[in-house]
Amino acid sequence: MRVIVLGVRRGRLEIKQFLRSRESVVFTLAFPIVMVTIFSLIYPGSLASGVRYSQYIVTGMIAAGLLATGFQGLGMQIPMERDRGVLKRLAGTPMPKASYFIGKILMVLAIGAICTALLLAYAVLFIGVTLPTDPARWLTFAWVFVLGITGCTLLGIAASSLVSTGRGASAVVTPIALVFQFISGVYFVFTSLPGWMQQVAALFPLKWMCQGMRSVFLPESQAAFEPAGSWELGRVALVLAAWVVIGLALCMLTFRWTSRRDG
């Protein structure tokens, strides 16, 4: 109970610190909206299947926003904290180490929820996106959201150990995130990508997050245009849950509280 209570307090502090960084707030919240706007203007019409492109791009940008908040955000933030000695000092306090990770997870969940809510509100008000009315679809949205952002958060924590300094974090993490976005059906119809690219994307969580979100916001008829001819929600859940386990294992094996120069 003490670990959870301290983790919640740490989470509140993490959220406050994030909100005080105006550059991070503006980029994180505005990036999905800007990208949806740009692609909606470039492709104002409908897909061959009769679905507006704006409806399709929103599904991918929700998933990409979760990736950016969890994987990309923590992959850059934690190395900077490590360089400044923040992690070293925290490790020397009585606070349980697990509380630090609980705080990060709560921060990512809160920011991810705000980012998604703003994107959906903007999409409905300004680009004509329609929201589902079936409660079952919102239930699917909830578990795809939770599994997806949890996996991205754990992978972001693990990725923070890939770089030697905080300055190099952006150069390592950002290209990885961009590649995932382009091969996973965020900006383009997934089945229009080369077959080998689809197979590579299927190894990673973002492709399945996008597919899960498409099952929520696109008509049921669109399932026929998926690679397997269906939404494969059982497989989506299985793959995302597997990446949560993989991410947790990588965190436990690779996370460092001190920088390499500290030994």
UniProtKB/TrEMBL annotation:
GO biological-process terms attached to the record: response to antibiotic
Q: Which ranges carry the ABC transmembrane type-2 domain?
A: 23-258
Transmembrane spans: 25-43, 55-74, 105-129, 141-163, 170-190, 236-255
Which GO molecular function terms does the record list? ABC-type transporter activity
* One term under GO cellular component: ATP-binding cassette (ABC) transporter complex
- Grouped into one coarse class, the protein's main location is membrane
Q: Which domain of life is it from?
A: Bacteria
The UniProt entry lists membrane topology as: Multi-pass membrane protein
Task: Write out the similarity annotation.
Answer: Belongs to the ABC-2 integral membrane protein family.
Protein name as catalogued? Transport permease protein
Write the lineage as a comma-separated list. Answer: Bacteria, Bacillati, Actinomycetota, Actinomycetes, Micromonosporales
